[in-house]
Amino acid sequence: MSAKRHFESWGRYPAYDARVIPLQWAADFPPRDLGSGAALPVGMGRSYGDVCLLKDGNLLSTLPMDRLLAFDPATGLLTCEAGVTLAAILDFAVPHGFFLPVTPGTKYVTVGGAIANDIHGKNHHVAGTFGLHVRRFELLRSNGTRTLCSPTENPDWYAATIGGLGLTGLIAWAEIQLKPIVTRAMDYTGIQFHGVDEFLALSKENSGAEYTVSWVDCTSTQKNFARGIFMAGDHAKTPGPLTRSPEPKLSLPFDLPGFLLNRATVGAFNALYFNKQRKPRVQAQVDYEPFFYPLDIALHWNRMYGRRGLLQFQYAIPWEHAREGTIDILQEVAKSGLASFLAVLKVFGDVASPGMLSFPQPGVTLALDFPIKPGVSFPLFDRLAAMTQEFGGRLYPAKDARMTAAQFQAFYPQWQSFEKYRDPLFMSSFWERVTGKEPTL
Amino acid sequence: MSNTQKNSRKVLVLGATAGLAIPVCRIFAAQGAHLFLVARNAERLAVVAADLKTRGAASVGTAVADLDDTANHASLLTHALNALGGCDVALLAHGVLWDPAELDASFAKSNALLQTNLVSPVSLCMILADYFVSRHAGVLAVFSSVAGERGRKANIIYGASKAGLTAYLGGLRQKLDREGVTVLTIKPGPVKTPMTADIKGYEKFADPKKVAVEIVNAIDKKKDVLYTPGIWLVIMFIVRHIPERIFKKMSI
């Protein structure tokens, strides 16, 4: 029986003790030596809050289940086990001329995690969520059943598992529809903007671009309020190199002291970042790595936030209140004096999410992160969560460690109908927190 | 070996679902090698074979067999070599690591471990050596362990099985070298594999992908002995040279 150890998510808050049980083969599930605890599958642990944690429970690591099972180079349909990372898919698929249909801001997540959180990327406005490109998967339940799930086979289990936070069972393998590319290169356009209205106008004008995302400076006020850079990109059309990416060399080997990230340093960074682009509009051809994964070049960059870690906040507010909600929330952040290092603004498209509990909805999404300072960042979070609710928006479970049970249940009223799909063995600290449920075993 | 030769080489893998065999095979597969895999569990073998085929192996043959069954070795290897149409590299990766306390308490269990880790590879090597000698070519790459360098109370039986295997491979190398056949003894230090997942300090163990690269390099360069990661060459040099009267009092 493996010993309990400290397990933390990417935000490093919260962190709980759990037994980590590696699953080498699909047949290792359900493990025989679980004792009396509940269980939760976990991949790379790159979600920020507690969706990938289970206090004093059994975390079933899918990382050893990293096999590619089939690939059709004519269609780009890839079948792989749940522990395969998006980085491994890129290493394999790019030389074949294929790319991920949807990718988040890090490639160090597993396919299982990408499905469980129904992740989104910079192409959400045209491609929808990751789950939309999952043709089929096999779901293993703790009672020993194995279920094939697709939009036509067991569609209710398909919908519950996509965005189902790993609670419906263990995904053994999935079929993912990759998309063709002819080069690693991306055609990139960066456009400076001032204010939310300019951001919205740029998003509309550039909705033909496959990938769009904006970095926003949320420390500045007055004339620089909500200034930012709108970034648009497309896979280049001229054939070019399709080589594998080199292994990352950089790694932040230790925790930086938490005080290093304060309003002054982040403000300076923001000014630098904004002015790095000297002209209002820049066009360039760039490699896909820095375009999609600017932070992946330094492994363990979360250590930048010090031992206490960071808290993420991401909302999706529907169009009806998207403009005023975004302005008010950005003003609240600027007023708070707390510095968010990475503030990302994006328009979500109207491609419907396939999952029962999927987060994205048409409108505007804003992601912020703050160093953990219980007396300061927690009250701000709580204010921002309340504002999100007032504007009819919702928060992203994969990035949350603070929303209340009442808020979650208001954001996701379908949670009760989801409950019947939860595997009786499975639980997460997140689910305990937002539903008030204790582990069932 | 030129790249073209390397790419189409024929590799036989015994114990193909072992934690270190898989990353080594992935490198061979990506080079476009022909593979023949032997393992005991059919379901696991099928998954590993699918992975290697997907990753680019020119062909992947499989056979389900319990390698403890030495009586079956001759027919198994005949079948494998025929299916592969020859063999350039044979990799012996099967082996077990059981709880040392249980082994110390049970001869039956110790005997079973010696069968898997020592007797079975010796039987396979005897047959494969004849085959390679007949061709005056080939690499016989066998997983031993740094644990075989010196008897320690922490894993008496496992250490003994690997010490025996290392000694056997040393003798075989001297005999086969003059026949143009390479015998590579692979001595991994602790590596992050399922076999070692419950051992204290697992987090600090070596990355199997990096170890696999070193193993394939050693096969390409027809090395005799590989310590991987390389630091274990130094560590084991020191461990071997501690006088026994001091070593017996130590707890390493």
Please provide a written account of the structure:
The complex is a heterodimer of chains A (441) and B (252). Chain A is α+β, with helices and mostly antiparallel strands and 441 residues long. Chain A has a domain at 185-402: Vanillyl-alcohol Oxidase, Chain A, domain 3 (3-Layer(aba) Sandwich), CATH 3.40.462.10. In chain A, 24% of the residues lie in helices and 26% in strands. Chain A has helices spanning 86-93, 111-116, 124-127, 155-161, 196-205, 263-276, 288-292, 319-336, 377-390, 405-411, 415-419, 429-435, and strands at residues 4-8, 15-22, 39-42, 58-61, 68-72, 77-81, 98-99, 134-140, 146-149, 170-177, 179-180, 185-194, 211-216, 227-235, 250-251, 281-287, 298-299, 310-318, 344-348, 363-371, 394-395. In chain A, α8 (319-336) packs antiparallel against α9. With 252 residues, chain B is an alpha/beta fold. A seven-stranded parallel beta sheet of chain B has the order 3-2-1-4-5-6-7, with helices on both faces. The model of chain B has no long low-confidence stretch (mean pLDDT 94). Chain B has one domain: 3-Layer(aba) Sandwich (Rossmann fold), CATH 3.40.50.720. Chain B has ten helices and seven strands. The chains are: A alpha+beta (441), B alpha/beta (252). Chain A binds chain B through residues 2, 22, 24-27, 64, 67-71, 81, 92, and chain B through 43-44, 47-48, 50-51, 54-55, 194, 197-198.
